[in-house]
Task: inverse folding
């Protein structure tokens, strides 16, 4: 059994926190300007400015005060969501004196030290000095109230038009570059250096198929003099349907909260969309078609809006219909409906009625609205959260979904398309045009570029590969990445684009590169696009405690299976076990194994006879504690008349923990007290994964399984693979101690690197210098410098052999040059 | 003096080089308040959670009721406790037979008899465990962190090289493993603060050592090669923040794996006489490891009897017999742990908690008047030993014990009814209060929160739950 038990914690140094002002909310430059201009204008301050300030103040109240002081909850009898309520004040009287902030109770309370019981807000941080200044200024200048029916939070427009190109600068004709050049001109930014051919090749491979170019294809590319060679590579990579789909599967699994294991499956409260998703990517289905399938699903795609149903009572804001509304809003529309699922949102314009209205679209029965989990008595009306795009009026659930699919994918819904192109841009360029990819109301660093990409995407039929081609063929994509200084700089809303941001290699890419170049990491998959299945089960002794099946103890067990066979033409068998086994037919040893990953079809030859046969297996479960164990078996017998007989590991097998002598391997043996096996997993068991090469006809079996097909394990998790209980739209890029410990000693990584190094040493016997060159070419896209080569040869000669090669491979895999894209 | 942006970034980089990672690691959209939080007084530096997984019946442990010995044909309704009671160090307070050693430590701690587990609909283990450990009932729209992760994030380890949050005794390959994984997580705080997991304390050293088969000399030369290659490579002079973060982590992990502090994980370093005192099984040895880890600077350590459906404390049949076994497993090691911490002068600053996700009863499942599906069958008359015990889930009255870390010595909080249903009748306590009490002891303000997708998320839902005043002296 592979002992992969590594969950690790961080090691924090407690730093001088007083220095860390970076955690405070960034200032609002627009607000600063408004306050400054109002003060400048003084008594003549115009109503446009005062109205703008009022909006800012009301947004601050919504965000920081409404939790306790709105019409829905009036602590101290004070509400701040209508002009009347604000003027009326609370149970102790008015909270403000228009024209006189220094006499206003609200200001007094806002300025009290946090330790004071009367300080406001009661919860969380104090308002920032600028926020308090904004309210003071607003009060001092008369507490002007802008018309109530106004949106407090900025909302990006829905409509989408292709922007006109900026003037041609004589150098950049690619559409993306034209907008970039114009932006750079405005902000006086120098174009970053271009990537060399080798750097470009590595980057575009990792971005499109998630694999590295082989040294031979690299050499061919470098030697190629075709000026259009980069575009040819892009097209060739996009045409590699399988690897493209397998790479991007991770991106979409994260976004659509799809996984092969996790909470909810055990009780049937969760459904995968893996097959549909994979086919959609493999066939390059248009994004419009994908969205329609998600929103108005058929059985293979319904898992997304079906949500995760937990047993027992669930908070009303998390019922599956609400989950559907939240997930669609976040993943596809780039807006946060989660806040509005409990109360009117404090961070955007969405209301409780809107979130329940949207959820109702997905509900068979009308939904009663719950505010903070308390029933309101109001029933929601089904509606899309952007009603201006179209009503959802149908009576039945299926009809409503048809309507929603149309409304959501209408060309008027620029938001849908902007959200998607922004995500793809972020994945390729390291940072979105809108930085917070889940909040498309935030400012893009270039509205024109964003609109161009989205409008062009729609115009071309919403093909994802077209979009990827467009971006990767641009000069700006093919440029050196910029050091932006810190995560904060990148997240900053005042971000100035200067070029691609460095990306950290992802967990699946790391595993796949290891698999391809060093040693296959995963043999079993949790999702098999080929949908191969065999009715063999992983069988073992039924380990019991208190009459219940438990995990098998470390032990040796013996299996027997009696068969009565007719005359045969030939036979072949596949067998494997976790952890070790020896297989006998009628007493003759036929095959054995010590690692469940490795097996080949075996011809039982003369051992198998016409008539009664006994298949006997001795198997061992290793380890310290009880752990998963199993035997998997499939025999295919070809009869003279072309028919086949299939024998599988199944409930007809018997098992025992004790045997006497050798006769247990023969047909004639007293096995009365042997018991029926327990099926610890079907072939598709999640513990070992589906061993796709456990297949007689597996001629075209890929040499390794890509990590996007396996369930999360400690190694992938340490490298950032998220649990997909919730939608994930950005993975952490930073290295951390937890990760580093896994990289230092994870047993899976270590074992594979050692196995792989043995192969490399064997292949390059005596030619270590060539071996090192080849490793560098494959992993880094270059040969080592003289300095590097000297160090490496010195290291190898110090301790010649596979251990040193393993160290060299490890050091290369951990290097920043390898890890950053 | 205002710093220009450039200067500010420069200073930040120096700061990160010096090893600050607070707030920068984890998910990108995390922002929150820090000021003032660490200036709260604390009475504890470390926490040990002794987790009785599976639902430990209070009437069979720390809150015994009238004893009815097994008599074939007895009425189920007449069975309150299946063990007689024994005295403790506290006047008038008795425990169930089998817990004499823990009873002998009660002068050092507070017994809470009135904990009420939340009403989450059906009473399901992993759902309640999730709620107990994160304080948020699942499902949530964001991923809430385990209490150990909050503490790891806010305080870090006591000693630089130790992992801050360690979880001992739970395998994740058991049934309901996915649900267990769901709350053994740092959630939105970022995987950096997640648990360091040691399912088997006997072999704990493996997880914190260089890779299997690599001796120290080899490990050191491998790291040296790594450093030299980076220095000789094209990025040698690039002071790019992601690269620095990677190099820094690789150095720190290297330091940890060969540090003498890592020896804390090696139980075989302990003198045999002491080792034997703890050795009732995996849980007992986990308690020994917890003591060693506290001595070496870990911050939050959870030792569990392990949840595996229907095993351990999760008695759906044979309740009496199995409770007898469970008590044997936990009694002496816990006594030894508390006593040793006390003798070594560590108990005053180490908060030790014994708890379970909910309790059990013979007849009542859930709330006294609730109808619940999938109840264990309880016959009206107990004919066989298999039916003699607490087999149903009960949430209304549960026992918890707190020792050390500023907790008042020798007191009892709350009581449960003497007749069925054995619900809390005075001073009911809920999980929010428990969490805030733990944070209070550690000096972590209830104001602690981070903004996740625009929403402030506190250590307990909305920062609710006042800490239990009487718990502390």
Result:
């Amino acid at each position: 059994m592979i002992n992969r038990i590594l969950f690790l914690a961080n090691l924090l140094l407690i730093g001088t926190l007083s220095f860390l002002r970076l955690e405070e909310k960034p200032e609002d430059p627009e607000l600063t300007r408004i306050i400054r201009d109002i003060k400048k204008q003084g008594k003549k301050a115009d109503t446009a400015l005062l109205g703008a300030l009022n909006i800012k103040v009301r947004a601050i109240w919504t965000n920081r005060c409404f939790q306790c002081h709105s019409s829905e909850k009036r602590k101290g009898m004070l509400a701040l969501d209508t002009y009347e309520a604000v003027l009326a004040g609370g149970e102790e009287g008015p909270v403000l004196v228009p024209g006189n902030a220094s006499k206003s109770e609200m200001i007094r309370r806002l300025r009290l030290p946090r330790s004071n019981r009367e300080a406001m807000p009661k919860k969380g941080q104090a308002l920032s000095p600028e926020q308090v200044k904004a309210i003071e200024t607003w009060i001092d200048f008369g507490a002007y109230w802008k018309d109530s029916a106004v949106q407090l939070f900025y909302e990006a427009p829905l409509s989408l038009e292709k922007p006109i190109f900026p003037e041609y600068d004589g150098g950049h004709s690619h559409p993306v570059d034209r907008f970039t050049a114009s932006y750079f001109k405005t902000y006086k930014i120098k174009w970053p250096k271009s990537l060399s051919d080798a750097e470009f090749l590595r980057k575009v491979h990792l971005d499109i198929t998630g694999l590295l170019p082989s040294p031979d294809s690299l050499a061919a590319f470098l030697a190629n003099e075709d000026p259009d060679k980069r575009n040819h590579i892009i097209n060739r990579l996009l045409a590699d349907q399988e690897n493209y789909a397998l790479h991007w599967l991770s991106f979409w699994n994260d976004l659509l909260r799809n996984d092969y294991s996790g909470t909810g499956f055990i009780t049937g409260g969760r459904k995968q969309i893996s097959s549909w998703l994979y086919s959609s990517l493999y066939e390059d289905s248009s994004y419009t078609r994908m969205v329609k399938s998600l929103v108005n699903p058929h059985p293979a795609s319904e898992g997304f809006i079906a949500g995760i149903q937990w047993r027992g009572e669930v908070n009303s804001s998390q019922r599956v219909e609400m989950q559907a509304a939240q997930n669609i809003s976040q993943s596809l529309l780039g807006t946060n409906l989660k806040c509005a699922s409990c109360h009117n949102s404090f961070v955007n314009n969405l209301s409780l009625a809107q979130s329940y209205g949207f959820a109702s679209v997905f509900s068979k029965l009308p939904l009663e609205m719950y505010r903070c989990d308390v029933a309101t008595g109001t029933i929601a009306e089904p509606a899309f959260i952007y009603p201006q795009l179209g009503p959802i009026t149908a009576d039945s659930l299926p009809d409503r979904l048809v309507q929603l699919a149309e409304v959501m994918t209408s060309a008027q819904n620029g938001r849908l398309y902007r959200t998607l192109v922004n995500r793809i841009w972020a994945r390729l360029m390291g940072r979105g045009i809108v930085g917070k990819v889940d909040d498309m109301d935030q400012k893009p660093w270039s509205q024109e570029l964003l609109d161009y990409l989205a409008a062009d995407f729609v115009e071309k039929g919403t093909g994802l590969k077209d979009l990827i081609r467009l971006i990767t063929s641009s000069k700006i994509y093919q440029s050196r990445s910029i050091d932006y200084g810190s995560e904060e700089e990148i997240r900053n809303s005042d971000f100035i684009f200067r070029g691609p941001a460095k990306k950290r290699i992802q967990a699946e890419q790391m595993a796949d590169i290891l698999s391809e170049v060093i040693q296959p990491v995963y043999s079993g998959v949790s999702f098999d696009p080929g949908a191969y299945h065999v009715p063999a089960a992983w069988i073992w002794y039924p380990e019991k405690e208190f009459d219940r099946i438990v995990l098998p103890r470390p032990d040796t067990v013996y299996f027997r299976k009696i068969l009565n066979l007719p005359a045969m033409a030939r036979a072949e068998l596949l067998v494997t076990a976790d952890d070790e086994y020896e297989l006998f037919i009628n007493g003759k040893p036929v095959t054995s194994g010590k690692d469940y990953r490795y097996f080949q079809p075996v011809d039982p030859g003369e051992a198998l006879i016409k008539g009664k046969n006994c298949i006997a297996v001795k198997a061992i479960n290793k380890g310290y504690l009880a752990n998963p164990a199993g035997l998997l078996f499939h025999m295919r017998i070809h009869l003279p008349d072309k028919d086949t007989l299939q024998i599988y590991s199944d409930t007809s097998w018997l098992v025992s923990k004790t045997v006497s002598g050798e006769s247990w391997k023969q047909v004639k043996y007293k096995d009365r007290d042997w018991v029926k096996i327990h099926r610890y997993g079907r072939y598709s068991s999640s513990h070992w994964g589906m061993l796709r090469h456990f297949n007689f006809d597996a001629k075209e079996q890929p040499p390794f399984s890509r990590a996007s097909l396996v369930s999360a394990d400690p190694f992938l998790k340490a490298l950032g693979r998220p649990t997909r209980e919730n939608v994930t739209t950005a993975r952490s890029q930073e290295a951390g101690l937890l990760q580093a410990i896994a990289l230092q000693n994870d047993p899976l990584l270590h074992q594979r690197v050692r196995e792989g190094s043995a192969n490399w040493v064997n292949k390059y016997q005596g030619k270590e210098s060539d071996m090192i060159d080849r490793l560098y070419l494959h992993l880094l896209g270059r040969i080592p410098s003289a300095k590097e080569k000297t160090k490496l040869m010195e290291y190898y000669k110090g301790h010649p052999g596979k251990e040193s090669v393993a160290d060299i491979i490890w050091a290369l895999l951990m290097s920043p040059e390898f890890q950053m894209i | 003096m205002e710093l220009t942006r450039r200067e500010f970034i420069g200073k930040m980089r120096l700061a990160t080089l010096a090893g600050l990672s607070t707030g920068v690691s984890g998910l990108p959209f995390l922002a929150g308040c820090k000021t003032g939080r660490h200036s709260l007084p604390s009475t504890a530096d470390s926490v040990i959670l002794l987790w009785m997984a599976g639902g430990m019946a209070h009437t069979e442990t720390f809150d015994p009721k009238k004893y009815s010995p097994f008599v074939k044909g007895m009425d189920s309704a007449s069975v309150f406790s299946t063990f007689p009671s024994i005295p403790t160090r506290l006047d008038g307070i008795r425990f169930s037979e089998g817990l004499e050693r823990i009873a002998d430590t009660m002068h050092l701690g507070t017994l809470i008899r009135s904990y009420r587990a939340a009403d989450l609909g059906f009473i399901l283990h992993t759902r309640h465990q999730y709620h107990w450990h994160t304080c948020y009932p699942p499902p949530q729209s964001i991923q809430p962190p385990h209490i150990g992760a909050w503490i790891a994030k806010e305080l870090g380890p006591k000693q630089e090289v130790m992992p801050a949050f360690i979880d001992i005794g739970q395998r994740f390959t058991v049934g309901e493993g996915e649900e267990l994984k769901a709350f053994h997580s740092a959630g939105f705080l970022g995987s950096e603060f997640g648990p360091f997991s040691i399912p088997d304390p006997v072999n704990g050293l493996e997880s914190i050592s260089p890779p299997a088969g690599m001796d120290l000399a080899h490990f050191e030369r491998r790291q040296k090669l790594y450093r030299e290659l980076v220095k000789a490579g094209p990025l040698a002079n690039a002071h790019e923040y992601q690269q620095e973060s990677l190099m820094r982590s690789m150095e720190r992990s290297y330091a940890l794996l060969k540090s003498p502090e890592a020896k804390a994980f090696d139980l075989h370093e302990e003198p045999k006489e002491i080792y034997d005192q703890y050795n009732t099984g995996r849980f007992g040895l986990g308690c020994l490891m917890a003591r060693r880890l506290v001595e070496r600077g870990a911050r939050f350590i959870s030792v569990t009897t392990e949840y595996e459906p229907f095993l351990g404390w999760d008695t759906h049949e044979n309740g009496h017999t199995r409770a007898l076994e469970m008590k044997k497993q936990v009694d002496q090691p816990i006594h030894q742990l508390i006593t040793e911490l006390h003798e070594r002068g560590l108990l005053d600053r180490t908060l030790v908690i014994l708890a379970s996700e909910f309790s059990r009863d013979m007849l009542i499942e859930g709330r006294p008047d609730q109808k619940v599906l999938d109840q264990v069958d309880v016959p009206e008359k107990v004919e066989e030993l298999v039916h003699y015990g607490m087999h149903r889930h009960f949430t209304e009255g549960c026992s918890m014990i707190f020792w050390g870390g500023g907790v008042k010595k020798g007191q009892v909080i709350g009581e449960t009814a003497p007749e069925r249903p054995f619900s809390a009748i005075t001073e009911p306590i809920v999980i929010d209060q428990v969490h805030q009490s733990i944070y209070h002891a550690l000096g972590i303000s209830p104001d602690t929160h981070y903004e996740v997708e625009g929403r402030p998320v506190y250590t307990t839902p909305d920062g609710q739950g006042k800490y239990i005043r009487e718990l502390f002296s």
